[in-house]
Amino acid sequence: MEKIFKLKENGTTFQREIFAGLTTFLTMAYILAVNPGMLSATGMPWGGVFTATVIASAIATIMMAFAANLPVALAPGMGLNAFFAFTVVLGMGYSWQLALTAVFFEGILFVILSLFNVREAIIKAIPTNLKKAVAVGIGLFIALIGFANSGIIVNDAGTVIGLGDLSAGSSSFLALIGLVIIAVLYVLKIPGSILIGIILTTIIGIPLKITTISEGWSLFSLPAAPLFFQFDFSAASIFSFPFFTVFFTFLFVDIFDTIGTLVGVTTQAGLIGKDGSIPRVKQALLSDAVGTVAGAVLGTSTVTSYVESAAGVSAGGRTGLTSLTTGILFLLALFLSPLFLLIPSAATAPALIFVGFLMMQPVVNIDFSDPTEGIPAFLAIVMMPFAYSIAEGIVYGILAYVILKAANRRFKDITIITWVLFAIFIVRFFMH
C-alpha cells in the first residue's frame, strides 16, 4: 500500500485513509437511494438503476484510486440526474434510452478531451484567486445541500428560502443534534469526528423513528441486473437540434462540476500546487470520463467527481487509498444495500454542513483588495449555492474576471484559454 499510494510522502496512514474512505462513502451513500428513485420516474426499473449506480461508481472511484492517487470519489451526479429525468425525459418527452445515448456520447467526448489535455488546460486557465473561491463556494454549496436534505432549510414562497420544522423529534431536529455532536468531537480533536457523528446520529434516530428498520428487514440482498447497452442510435433522434442541446448541457455541466470539485477537494486536502496545479489531473479527469461511459453502458446518468469527497478529506484522506476504500464499499453495497440505506439523510446532512465550515478556510487568502480579483471570486462563491450549481459559479466568476480585467486594461492577466471560455459562456447565454 505504501508503494502504490505513497502514504508517508502524503503525511497519512493506512488506518486514517480507511477511516476517510468510510466517511466519504457514508456521506455520499444517499445517492444509492436517491438516484434510482429519480431515474425510475422515467420508467427505468429501480433495481437495475441501483445496480448500475453502484457498479459505475465503483469503477470510476477505483480507477481514480489507482490512476490518479487522489481521495476523490465518483458517482452519478446530483443535478445531472434531475436534468436527465425531469427535463430530458419527462419534460422534453425523450425516451430514457435516448437520454442514456446522450450521456454515452458525452462520456466518449470526455475521454477524448481528457486524453488530449483539453480539460487540464481549462483547469490551468482558471485564475488562482478563482480557484480558491471555487473551494469556498463548494463549501457553501455542500452546506446548503446538508441544510436542505435535513429540512433545516426549506423552499419558502414568501422569502425564497426559510427555516423548516425544527420541533423536537423532527428530522431537522435530529440533524441539528448531529451537527452539535460533530462540532463538539472536532473541537475536542477526537479522530474520525465526522464518521462518529454520522453513526451516533443514525442510532439516535432509531427511537425517534427517523432511522427506520422495516419488518422482515434483512441484512443481505441480491442485486438486480443492470440495463446493459440500452441506447437509441436512430438518426432522426441523435441528429436533431434538441438532442444536441441535451448533449451540450450534459457536457457543459459535467466539465465544470468536475473541474470545480477537483479544485475544491484538492485545495481542502492541501494537495494543490503553489501554481494552482492539481497533481495527476489528467488521470483524474480520465477516471471521470471512463465512469460516465461505464455508467451509460450500465444504465445510469452522468458519473462525476463528488463534492462529498471533502468529508473524507476532512477525516484525513490524502491518497487514492481513501478512494479505493470508498469504491470497495460501493461494491459491498450491492449485497448489503439494506444496511447502508438505513442511514437517514438527517445523519449525513450534519457532515455536509460541517464540511462546509472546513472548506471556508481558503477565503482568507483571496485578494479582495483588488476588485478585478475580488468581485469575480465573490460571484463564484455566492453563485454556487444560490444557483445550486458548481458549474454556474465558475461561469459567472470567469465572465466577471475577463470583463473587469479588460475594463481595467490588464490584458496580460487574461490567458488565451480564459478568453475562449469567456466566448463559450457568452454563446451559451444565447442558446438558452
Structure description:
There is one protein chain. This protein has helices at residues 2-5, 14-28, 31-39, 46-68, 80-89, 96-115, 118-125, 128-150, 171-187, 193-204, 235-238, 241-269, 281-298, 309-314, 320-340, 345-358, 371-386, 390-407, 416-431, and strands spanning 74-76, 153-156, 160-163, 303-305. It has one domain (2-228, 242-431). The mean pLDDT is 89. By secondary structure, the chain is mainly alpha-helical.
Q: In a few lines, what is going on in this structure?
A:
With 432 residues, the protein is mainly alpha-helical.
Strand order of the largest sheet: 1-4
Overall helicity:
55-70%
How many structural domains are formed by the residues? 1
Mean pLDDT: 89
List the helices and strands and how they pair.
Elements: H1 2-5, H2 14-28, H3 31-39, H4 46-68, E1 74-76, H5 80-89, H6 96-115, H7 118-125, H8 128-150, E2 153-156, E3 160-163, H9 171-187, H10 193-204, H11 235-238, H12 241-269, H13 281-298, E4 303-305, H14 309-314, H15 320-340, H16 345-358, H17 371-386, H18 390-407, H19 416-431
Key descriptive features of the protein:
432 residues, mainly alpha, two-stranded antiparallel ribbon, 4 strands, 3% strand, globular
